[in-house]
Design a protein that fits this description.
mainly alpha, Growth Hormone, Chain: A, 3 domains, 82% helix, 0% strand
């Protein structure tokens, strides 16, 4: 017969066992956590992560401030738009050229060459650019070496995915978003001390750090092409009316988003924002992207890519409208937190939409057309059009006009993504 003492002893043994088990579980969890941290710190992919981080930090250092610097140099709104469009126009011709060079000499060689040359040219740029003619010449020269940096990094990352050295492209691109936020914040903090031209120097420094990181990158032995940009199946694809209408929509949305990407610093100047607030606001764009790489993947499992594109388009219209009615610099930081919703969702879902419309053997051509629509036709037209509008009216009115344009585009997109029959589109 059990006594009270036996029950107490049994309870104490049970309690001791539970405590030991808990401590063992915690110790195993701690060991697992330490192993994961150690694996991350010693990962052979850290060099590529760092190259992405510093590459995108360089981009956010100069792109948002470029038009503001051009305005300070005395250029008119239309001249600003034309000069700012040069890198995106040249990208259409330069990227295939770098692809040929990369096929012959290797992507890493081309990446390192472009990083070194662009880093040096960024330092020279603010001193050599005197007058509209020289500014255009320097912009062309800089674009030749700077525009292939990020496409080359993308291509190298995709090679790593193909060779199973990394799990997915998004795990590497994630560090680019962190870099974008870092570059904008650092540059915004330095502008009060050294002026807007410091953006070129910080961009140069980040490219130099990206070059140092690239030294440790190891390329897998693959037979893929240089930058994977081609239009060889253009004739077969161009008959797809849904795709052509979709690309036209992408061009219009890109025009609206160009007003944000390239003219935000001019808008911030007009509403009397400090350089620090401007830099922090632009940095918020990169921070807001981080969760949306995972949200986009989740949404794509729940709904059709076209419907997600529609959400991003309408969010872009709302974002532009908020700029048009806002007079408070600090509120722009909140508006910039929409960047993940308007840009990340748009691009990830657009890639999936195009892939779903095109046979696998033509997908490289399809993605090239998407890239040309957004970063080519859309960015070039957006810079010139918004530059001309900026010359005629305040940026708040520019944002109001582009908001209405994107809203009307969203209505048209609604009928494509929601109302068409399933056999004519991928929306489900």
């Amino acid at each position: 017969m059990k006594t009270k003492q036996d029950d107490c002893e049994q309870y104490e043994k049970w309690l001791d066992t539970m405590i030991v088990n808990v401590f063992e579980e915690k110790e195993i969890e701690a060991m697992t956590c330490r192993a994961k941290v150690r694996s991350l710190l010693l990962s052979k992919n850290n060099a590529l992560r760092a190259a992405f981080l510093f590459g995108f930090a360089s981009l956010s250092s100069w792109i948002p401030m470029f038009n503001l610097w051009l305005g300070n140099e005395g250029l008119s709104g239309l001249q600003i738009g034309i000069v700012a469009a040069i890198p995106w126009l040249l990208m259409l011709f330069i990227q295939p050229f770098w692809g040929i060079v990369a096929d012959r000499y290797g992507k890493l060689f081309c990446l390192r060459l472009s990083l070194i040359c662009a880093s040096v040219l960024f330092i020279i740029y603010p001193f050599a650019s005197v007058g509209i003619g020289l500014i255009i010449c320097m912009t062309i020269l800089l674009s030749v070496f700077n525009t292939p940096v990020l496409p080359l990094l993308d291509s190298i990352a995709l090679d790593q995915v193909e060779s199973k050295q990394i799990n997915s492209y998004s795990t590497i691109r994630f560090w680019g978003a962190i870099g974008y936020a870092t570059g904008a914040a650092v540059t915004g903090w330095l502008i009060p001390f050294f002026g807007v031209k410091v953006a070129f120097f910080t961009s140069s420094g980040f490219l130099a750090l990206s070059y140092l990181s690239s030294i440790k990158i190891n390329m897998p032995a693959l037979t893929s092409k240089g930058l994977d940009v081609e239009f060889r199946y253009l004739g077969e694809i161009i008959s797809n009316k849904i795709l052509l209408v979709f690309l036209a929509i992408v061009v219009v949305v890109s025009i609206g988003q160009s007003a944000i990407t390239f003219f935000l610093s001019l808008y911030m100047s007009q509403i009397k924002a400090s350089p620090e607030i401007t830099g922090f606001a632009i940095g918020m764009e990169g921070i807001s992207e981080l969760p949306f790489y995972f949200i986009a993947a989740w949404l794509l499992r729940k709904m059709a890519p076209g419907k997600i594109v529609f959400i991003a388009i309408m969010a872009t219209s709302i974002r532009l409208f908020l700029y048009s009615v806002n007079n408070t610099p600090n509120f722009v930081i909140l508006i910039e937190s929409m960047n993940g919703l308007t840009w990340t969702l748009l691009w990830v879902s657009s890639v999936e939409f195009v892939n779903s419309l095109i046979p696998a053997k033509w997908r490289t051509t399809g993605q090239s057309m998407l890239w040309a629509a957004y970063f080519g036709a859309g960015s070039v037209t957006g810079n010139i059009l918004c530059g001309w509008m900026y010359q005629q009216m305040p940026m708040k009115q520019v944002y109001a006009a582009t908001s209405l344009m994107i809203f009307l585009t969203g209505i048209a997109a609604f009928f494509i993504f929601f109302k068409r029959k399933k056999n004519n589109t991928i929306a489900r």
